[in-house]
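step: validate -> pass
step: tokenize input -> pass
step: predict -> running
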Amino acid sequence: MKEQKNNNVEVIDANAVDLDTKITFAKPFEFNGQKYESIELNLDDLTGIDLEEAEVEFTTRNPQIAAQTFLKAMSNAYQAIVAAKAAGVNPQFIRSLPANEYAKVTATVQAFLLKRG
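step: predict -> pass
step: emit ->
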């Protein structure tokens, strides 16, 4: 992984990151009466249609934020919708995760979306 440090900020080259698409939760997460210990993000199975549908949902759900968001791949709300599609779950599942788990999931999607070549 290539790293640079600028003004106490660590910059990570997304192309050098091997994505672990299985997110194991620190503790079991309960959603709709069922407990989950992990989630598998099948990001490589997504299609352009999936991403376009995620963009439409993001824009419909968050019109003001969407209008101000230049790069949807940088929005946690958009990333959560993409994660839900990749995992085959309702977006509310992703949004209901504890903050640390939500951050892991959305960071994984962001790295996938920003990865080049």
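step: describe -> The mean pLDDT is 86.
step: cleanup -> pass
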